[in-house]
Amino acid sequence: MQLIRIKFAKGEELRFLSHLDLMRTVQRIFRRARLPLAYSQGFNPHPKIAYSPALPVGVTSDTEYLDVELAEKLQLREIKKKLVEQSPPGLEIKELVEIKPEARALNVVINRAEYEVRGDINISRDQCAACLEKLLAKREILVKKTTKKGMKEKNIRPGIFNLECAEDQSGPYLKMLVLAGSLGNVRPEQVLEAIDKECALRVDTPRIKRTGLYIFDGERYLSPLAEGC
Amino acid sequence: MQQYIRDRILPTVQKPARYMGNEWNIVKKSWEDVKVKMAFAFPDVYEVGMSHLGLQILYGLVNEQPDFLLERVFAPWVDMEERLRKKEIPLFSLESYHPLKDFHVIGFTLQYEMSYTNILNMLNMAQLPLLSEERPHGPLVIGGGPCAVNPEPLAPFFDCFLLGDSEEMLLEVLEVVGKYVEGEGKVRKEPLLKELAGIQGVYVPSFYRVQYREDGTVDNVTPVNEAAPERVKRRVLDDLDRSYFPVKPIVPYTEVVHDRMMLEVMRGCTRGCRFCQAGMVYRPVRERRMETLLKQAEELVAHTGHEEISLTSLSTADYSCVRPLISTLLDTYQDRGINVALPSLRVDAFSVDLAREVQKVRKSGLTFAPEAGSQRLRDVINKNVREEDLLSAVTGAFKAGWTGIKLYFMIGLPTETEGDLLEIARLAKEVLAIGRRELKEQGKKAKPTVTVSVSSFVPKAHTPFQFEPQDDRQVLKEKQELLARHLREKGLKFKWHNREMSFLEAVFARGSRKLAGTILAAWKNGCRFDSWEEHFNFDRWQAAFEQTGVNPDFFANRRVDYDEVLPWDHIDVGVSKRYLIKEHRRAIEESTTSDCRWDGCTGCAICQRFGVDNRLWGERHATD
Ligand code: SF4
After folding, report:
1. Residue with CA nearest ligand 1 atom 5
2. Res A6 pLDDT > 90
3. What is the ipTM of this complex?
4. Which residues share a beta bridge with B327?
5. Domains plus CATH for chain A?
6. CA–CA separation, B217 vs B437, rounded Å?
7. Cis peptide before B139 (omega within 30 of 0)
């Protein structure tokens, strides 16, 4: 038996996969690679694979994680090689570490997600900064949420920890750090919606990428690869 | 363009993964280096089309040839259609995002009549003229699949149809196309069609003139081009065991209807159900050897990573090596988390036994299709199932732990009486009673459920019932209501198929070229996705019949004389009309006909006429 945490990226080619599609894809990669997945007990056994908080459809990511249990112990190098061979373009296996059986689930320990939003921004960098400042000064930012019972309003302000206008060689972009995981999720589209409402700042055909998932312990931001080992 | 579609269009539509491409095992060939480019067009959504084995077979076969390529396109869902039309983006393929009009050949698969308006819609979205004569320089629009055995309602839209097993003939066709290609999307169509007409299995509708009598029936169908044969013979793959099989099928990301490996254990069925088109037009029975199947399974598992192997055919329990095949597959793959699935069960205890072996979890109910309620009517349709078979099958199923049973019946069958219908209700109640008794004996709290699912009989071309009328819609309504009244009991569920859809199916299944204008009018009226309840609109169809002056009842509800010239008589699927007439007479006499694969030739004549044979590898196994 062996428990492994894998960091992977979901690229442009796969950006329209839902979380369920991604789960199916990963299982098939493991089967093609003939890696000995461990199965749950019971009538309807399924492989023991658990994921970091689900990525919204249409969003790419540099930093996704999954924990998988294998029935046998194998060399990490060997596992990585096999997975890479069987992965479709757009799914990049980045790093593997072995974790302890007592490691807590990814969805429980991860509580922060970082996103970048790129695309044509309709206002200048200064106006952008002023807009975000104004927005963050509020105590309540309400966005509409469709639930099973109908439309509901949700305050996302407590789940926004950072929001800024940034720029690099490929141009200006928005950067945000928000709540993620089992305690709740703020989705980047919700933040964009709030910004638009606040000061008509719009990103034309936004390309959203998740650039980080962290474990924030009150002081430090830890990588899920460091935790659990 | 690809970037524009990905960035601007896909984020705004439902299920964008349908249009994404990039799946595992996709083949992307260099466009410039390939001589003949063909698009495989499936006139329904991605999830339906990707569940179709024929697509995977042809995709692999063609793409293995250095000079050809085959790319896929599906019917865009209505939201996608709206976006593409608004931006004037022509319909494109999933592999290279090339517009359809840049291909030399566009091949539509004709799986069901209710997809016809989607075909026109796709051609129109491809910015191509709909009529063959308006496309003198290509692309060549071809059709194949089950509905091609009577393609007459579609005749003016298509350049040619391929009749029979396409993997036998498609490469030959593309080879000939290669001689006449002229740049992107262009072929010298006239000489090309002439040469194609000489290939067995190719039907060029424009090479035939149809003359009608005053009463609307066909007087004669005459070849008007020296290249066209009197009758077009279907192409029959003789040896399935040695035929091409795709071991690297495309693995979809998004969930499709049949999301699993498909192992085709045999083709054809000779049980001889008299309503069944597949059972007539795919003769004879051609099995694959078990060793071949096991090898194919091994490769499929390695190349797909799927979690289920489905054993496909028209009636898998009839495959002569089904037992050892299933146990070997289970032994080999169960530990690797791979299941085996049997898509079709025969109505007998043997099948339940097989189902019990493969389905460890009794999740869904088991489905059986006795088709008719009374023994008399089952004899008429030659469904050789006795009531004891059904009762022992369901008893076995309840004993093995299933609590739900689904029963399929057809109403409106030839010679049907009210008594036959009441037998359906009686049988369903009997099955439910067995369920109650069995579950009680096992001390289970669960209550059994029996679902009765009823479709309406559709007379199909090339079957013994091609001479029979479909019941009037009002009569079908009364029959459905009668059943509904008699199936009211706790634990019984009653479902029925849309009568108006069945009516249109009947119109087109026995239709002539006179219906082409109606399909066009219906499409112009806004019909598409007609097989989807949420889009089906009968009023628009009725308007189309009126606009084109066509009486649909003539096709659906009329009894046809034995000596009448039928619109599809010039299409020779192998089974002789004499045999169909003989079988029809036997039906009226309530006598049954045995299965020729075990009990000797019954005279449909395909084997002698086409030089083929039933090919079985194992022994006959007991049916109970
Ligand atoms: S010719 Fe005879 S043996 Fe061959 S399929 Fe027809 S009935 Fe069966």
Report:
1. B284
2. yes
3. 0.89
4. none
5. 2-103 (3.30.70.580), 109-225 (3.30.70)
6. 55
7. yes
- β-pairing, B218-223 vs B266-267, is unpaired
Tell me A33's DSSP state.
T
Domain boundaries, chain B: 2-233, 260-364+594-624
pLDDT reading at A40 higher than 90? no
Cβ of A39 within 8 Å of Cβ of B337? The answer is yes
- pLDDT band per the 50, 70, 90 thresholds, residue B229: very high
Report the sign of the C-alpha dihedral through residues B75, B77, B82, B87, in that order: negative
Taking the C-alpha atoms of residue A58 and residue A38, their distance in angstroms, rounded to an integer, is 31
**What does residue A130 show for φ and ψ, rounded to 5 degrees?**
-65, -40
Q: Is B475 helix (H, G, I), strand (E, B) or coil?
A: helix
User: B267, B230, B240, B290: which is closest to B569 by C-alpha?
Assistant: B230
Domain B2-233 is classified in which CATH homologous superfamily? Cobalamin-binding domain (3.40.50.280)
Contact B592/B382 with Cβ under 8 angstroms?
yes
Alpha carbon of B18 to ligand 1 centroid (Å): 42
* Chain A residue whose CA is closest to B305: A28
Three-state SS string over A127-172 comes to HHHHHHHHHHCCCCCEEEEEECCEEEEEECHHHEEEEEEEEECCEE
Q: Which residues, including other chains, have CB under 8 Å from residue B116's CB and lie 6 or more apart?
A: B43, B153, B154, B508, B519, B530
Instruction: Specify the CATH architecture of the domain B260-364+594-624.
Output: 2-Layer Sandwich (3.30)
**Cβ distance of A16 and B20 shorter than 8 Å:** yes
